[in-house]
Design brief:
Pfam families: ABC_tran (PF00005). Helix content is 32%, strand content 23%. It is α/β, with parallel strands linked by helices and 256 residues long. Bound molecules: adenosine-5'-diphosphate and magnesium ion (MG).
Length: 256
């Protein structure tokens, strides 16, 4: 469904931020990327939808290399890739439902991106998605009045409005309290298990990865040092992922 092959990236042409990163993401699974700060997690997610251009490698999304698409094709492919951010990226003065409706902007001209011009069918769908994430009664509240956990759930509803095949989440719970963390992670897991969406999440909380992931990818210093089922994420593997300057020789676990 999504396969990353030999991804390589340097921002400055000297220091490597990603070196030969390869992994696959399966539909209906939660895949979590863990690793220390600066390991390259965000760079991987932003390369997938080509928000940044990687230097080398292949990103196969439904067997098409994202790197080879022209602008129009890339826009279409991005419509099938939902994004969830640590800081929500909502338009705070707008209501929850207006933010969710922005999720289908990719399929419209800019002019149509005004609330009154959305079709009733789209407004109904946006409301249903807010209900799905438990926020039906907050649909007409301005986002700036919502809690962090509620904002992130609006972010999820907005991503779902695109009818994504995959959702990429960059530290989605980093700003949330423990209770909101559980709510948001439960929703993301439900999207994988019940809706068959691939969910790829960058996290630094190992305990959350253990609880929610089917598949874990460990990144250290821009390299994949663990790629396996979550139940095989041992304490030794975690120590390896989080140690400084891992030498990947002999430490890469790559079996399914
Ligand atoms: N825009 C940028 N310009 C230059 N270097 C960057 C940029 N973004 C990230 N980096 C570098 O790339 C490496 C990986 O960063 P990042 O992907 O943000 O890691 P993570 O998300 O795991 O914390 C780090 O060394 C970071 O300093
Ligand atoms: Mg990051």
């Amino acid at each position: 469904m999504l396969t990353v092959n030999h991804l390589t990236k340097s921002y400055d042409g000297e220091k490597m931020s990603l070196t030969d990163v390869s992994f696959s993401v399966r539909p209906g699974e939660v895949t979590v990327i863990i690793g220390p700060s600066g390991a390259g997690k965000t760079t991987i997610l932003r390369s997938i939808n080509q928000l940044i251009r990687d230097d080398d490698g292949e990103i196969l999304f439904d067997d098409t290399d994202m790197r080879q698409l022209n602008r129009r094709q890339l826009r279409q492919a991005r419509c099938r890739i939902g994004m969830i951010f640590q800081n929500y990226n909502l338009i705070e003065p707008l209501t929850a439902i207006e933010n969710v409706l922005h999720g289908c902007l990719g399929t419209k001209s800019n002019l149509a991106g005004i609330f009154s011009m959305y079709r009733n069918r789209e407004k109904e769908e946006a409301l249903q998605l807010l209900q799905k994430v438990g926020l039906g009664e907050f649909a007409y509240q301005q986002c700036r009045n919502l809690s962090g956990g509620q904002k992130q759930r609006v972010g999820i509803a907005r991503a779902l409005m695109q009818r994504p095949k995959i959702i990429l989440c960059d530290e989605p719970i980093a700003s949330l309290d423990p209770k909101s963390t559980v709510t948001v992670m439960d929703i993301l897991r439900d999207l994988a298990v019940n809706d068959g969406i691939s969910v790829l999440i960058n996290l630094h909380q190992v305990d959350i990865a253990r609880k929610y992931a089917d598949h874990v990818i460990g990144i250290n210093n821009g390299q994949v040092v663990f790629d396996n089922r979550a139940k095989l994420l041992s304490d030794v593997a975690i120590a390896n992922i989080y140690q400084k300057n891992v030498n990947t020789e002999g430490s890469l676990v790559h079996e399914f």
